[in-house]
Amino acid sequence: MADAKELSGGSLLLAWQLKDKRVLIVGGGDVASGRLESVLVADALVTLVSPSERLHPLTRRLIDASDRITYRDRLFELSDLDGADMVLTAIDDVETSRAICAECRARRIPVNVADIPPSCDFYFGSQIRNGPLQVMISTNGRSPKLANIVRRRIEKSLPEHVGEAIEKVGELRSKLRERAPGVGGELGKRRMRWMVDVCTSWEMEDLALLDDDMMRKLLDDGWENNRVPKLEDVGGRPRRDAASSPLQVRAAVLTSLVGFLAGAACAAAVMLTRRR
Amino acid sequence: MADAKELSGGSLLLAWQLKDKRVLIVGGGDVASGRLESVLVADALVTLVSPSERLHPLTRRLIDASDRITYRDRLFELSDLDGADMVLTAIDDVETSRAICAECRARRIPVNVADIPPSCDFYFGSQIRNGPLQVMISTNGRSPKLANIVRRRIEKSLPEHVGEAIEKVGELRSKLRERAPGVGGELGKRRMRWMVDVCTSWEMEDLALLDDDMMRKLLDDGWENNRVPKLEDVGGRPRRDAASSPLQVRAAVLTSLVGFLAGAACAAAVMLTRRR
């Protein structure tokens, strides 16, 4: 644990739950389209208020494609706040933005006003999404550019197929819970231990290969006998093409080969010189 | 942009702002101590309610060390909710937990009840903190174990000194805003461009070396002349000890040396055999 003095200057990072919650977005431009995408990911019911001539093409496309968006082709009205569980504004009108914020605070509705930090109960960080995996990077306002650089580095470091692996492990967990139901207790602990064993003994890319058949075999042979079969044991075939001979291995083989040839050439040269 | 259909099943990841907000924590055990640490990081004013005999040593240590915690040595009472901006419970009593959640929702106070997902307005993901940098990893409930594995991989992939670099760039930005003040407009854009140039042309480990003197030189020579001097130009000395000869380089030298010796030995052996 860190020193109590060091505990400051940060935010509380959260995964807010919006399933079937009502989110009001005021504005339809570039920033609003990003907000819209973020709350749709979280299964929110959205009302978007903006005159149609100010809609960004991305915003318009999302409105057309999703049945979870109620679109109001006009400027903001106070009654738009009725029933909202969260409010996000992204308009150029600072005065209206501040008024919306004040009204939200009076009604205790969490609010974010783009570009006006004091009018925000929360910020959006730099984000990564890969299937069910979500990662947020925040520099707590110090440097959006470095947040971006860090995001790209993290993206590169993520194991291949990580999103699929997480999806499949989630399915396996549900199947296990159906097979051995109940909350807590000894069984709950055994379930958790077995899932941890599966996750730590299989490679991420192998977990991503799991299909219904393999999951059934994994539960029949593995869970029932309290062991963790290998991918091949449940009928899977590893895709070890690039992965089993990664760049570093190939580079090492090449360097030692070059060294070998250089060494042989030198020795031969030395000995030939001496022979004369 | 992703397909509208793919936009679901996630959470809205947020950096919640708690500076001088009042957070109520009900419970004093292991989980509560983690919550306490997270909200102290975010500069919250905390009230913690728990009979002292149930306090975890870590919780007790934080209570003793921080002047931002009001401690109530007793069980939860309804009046504890008065004035709370956020409520976190981590107690074994499911009935009380659910009652607290219901009351919070009636009062529109964001609430998290540990271990009872339907009673949570938000979840805590797997987190990394490195100075002002915070990273959250969420698998949206699919697999806490894989979240953990991904967290460790991300931790390893983070550039060395990344926290210090972000801190220093934050300071440089503030100094620049003092030197060239004003919101938006051409000046704002020039400020942003110059900061981006600094962040992209300097290595993370060099940014971390910036001190007050170097920042002043960077602004005098760089900002004023619209260019980005190098670390050495502002009086810095790169710490390229381990970095300029990273493990991979050393490994490559070693492999080629071994190859060279093996090649020389082989050639010598062949020629000696032939000579006889």
From TrEMBL, chains A, B:
EC number: 1.3.1.76
Gene Ontology biological-process entries: siroheme biosynthetic process
Residue ranges annotated for the Siroheme synthase central domain, each copy included: 130-157
Positions of transmembrane segments: 251-272
Entry GO MF terms: ferrochelatase activity; precorrin-2 dehydrogenase activity
UniProt pathway annotation: Porphyrin-containing compound metabolism; siroheme biosynthesis; sirohydrochlorin from precorrin-2: step 1/1
Record field: catalytic activity: precorrin-2 + NAD(+) = sirohydrochlorin + NADH + 2 H(+)
Keywords, comma-separated and alphabetical: Membrane, NAD, Oxidoreductase, Porphyrin biosynthesis, Transmembrane, Transmembrane helix
Enzyme class per UniProt: oxidoreductase
Protein name in the entry: precorrin-2 dehydrogenase
Highest classification ranks of the organism: Eukaryota, Fungi, Dikarya, Basidiomycota, Agaricomycotina
